[in-house]
């Protein structure tokens, strides 16, 4: 068993003539917090969907938790957690019921579910709202709960697709504390984000531009390599030529 | 706790929390039976009768008196010509008319069958057919009494009165019993197709479907987890409709109940598959609802023979009705309930339904898998 949580090699996905993800290769080490950056439409979500077994790659291979994503989908699914851009909890159920549901789906025993539910509610400070419909909780709380629910089966790798979009700065801060918490327990985290300050929190980042990985490394190393002040600046510089090119082809 | 149990429990929670939908699902069929049952008035009383008597004689007077005496009929108009009836019928002044041919009494004497015509407004088909037979029985009663106690020697010969009857406005009458099987199909369609399509697309809309797809649940487990609760509700509703129909409206249930339930299950399977298919092809609840309404409910109401008899449809529509699952189920349910027939008579319809179930189930599972790629 290698200590690589994710290995992607020439991973490609085409939709008709459009190549959404174009031969991307990268490795994520176990326990790492890996930032997956890119403009809207750069192919981040498509890449993630291939890694979590929702989409077959058109070409290339990827191994997640040591399993091939196109042939060992079941095993991959068992070992990962996923929190999508869209809210993945049932809003008419309470936090407790949501935890129980997903615990059951991932095959936890009743005792495990009971134990983890109380742990989770306590850590989140949710004990008072455990039996309130999720719908009536503030967005930030819901996001934190969704993250915890994605971890209910203690997956080795968790995929977070823009988990903090639309959340206030304080909640974002708290959210990242949860991410670090998970990472310190040995969970590998792959996170996509729009917020460049969040990129600085990651151990390593990759920046996707038009389906390819344009840059990859630690935030510090990247800033040095491209002689920029911030990841923000780097992102704009990498993304701009493409944006300009796209604008040029418009009629 | 297995994953499937968890899913099922969750789905029941959804249904329980969404009280309005739950109430609709359970109350709708019961209310519908009441509406259908009472809309079709079955009691014959205070019938507004018009009489066309161009040449009154002893016999026509006697028969008219018999109609008036029963307490059921009330003579609202006596007119000389048949043409006058149109106005009376159209305005609703008259519900039924007795038309005597001239020389009614002489015909008895000469041994020729005396002729009269009974016209009935059949806008409400069941009332219409009841009125028809009631009037007929009055005429028959009169003929019998003439035969039993002839008033004059001239009438020693066998007396016969030939009553021709004609239903106006709606010549194909449906019996009140026919609506229950149709209603069962309707209820099952709503619950199975519509609710399945909506509940599946709701998960797509909210993003929870993705969470389920990423989990180790297999596609069939997701589908079973989603549709089983609606299947259960479907069965409860059908049972409620049946009990209500039997107790409140005394609709007969002559055939085998297990067979009826089995055929119901087959029909539910067809409807569920349609619901899954719709949800796989649409991405929002609203579109799914439109598809379910237009694609399953309308055809099942219009082309199943539930309300409009298939026999009186143009050939093209009749041909189209072959692909409407409700058509087969309504035929089966009517056969079992009203005629008490068994599988040996409904095997053809059952085969059609089974074929549809197979094709749709395969198609729906395939299109559900397609989304996973």
Give a summary of the structure in a few sentences:
The complex is a heterodimer of chains A (251) and B (373). In chain A, 39% of the residues lie in helices and 26% in strands. By secondary structure, chain A is of the alpha/beta class.
Written description of the protein model:
The complex is a heterodimer of chains A (251) and B (373). Chain A has 9 helices and 10 strands. The N and C termini of chain A lie far apart (53 Å). Chain A has helices at 44-51, 73-79, 95-105, 110-124, 139-150, 169-184, 196-199, 219-225, 231-249; strands at 4-15, 18-29, 33-38, 59-64, 67-68, 80-83, 157-161, 188-193, 204-209, 212-217. Chain B is 66% helix and 9% strand. Chain B has helices spanning 3-17, 19-39, 58-69, 84-91, 104-110, 125-148, 179-206, 208-214, 219-247, 257-281, 285-302, 315-320, 325-339, 343-372, and strands at 47-52, 73-79, 96-100, 114-121, 161-168. In chain B, strands 2-1-3-4-5 form a 5-stranded mixed sheet, with helices on both faces. The longest helix of chain B is centred in the last third of the chain and has 30 residues, at 343-372. Chain A binds chain B through residues 52-56, 74, 77-78, 80, 82, 84-93, 97, 100-110, 113, 133, and chain B through 1-3, 5-7, 9-10, 13-14, 17-18, 206-208, 210-217, 372-373.
The percent of residues in helical segments of chain A reads 25-40%
Global structural class of chain B: alpha/beta
Distance between the termini of chain B: 29 Å
Low-confidence stretches of chain B: 169-174
User: In total, how many beta strands of chain A?
Assistant: 10
Strand order of the largest sheet of chain B: 2-1-3-4-5
In percent, how much strand structure appears in the residues of chain A?
A: 25-35%
N-to-C terminal Cα separation of chain A, in Å? 53 Å
Number of domains of chain B: 2
**Into which percent range does the helicity of residues of chain B fall?**
55-70%
Q: Helix- and strand-based class of chain A?
A: alpha/beta
The largest pleated sheet of chain A is described as:
6 strands, mixed
Mean pLDDT over all positions of chain A: 88
**How many DSSP H or I helices of chain B?**
14
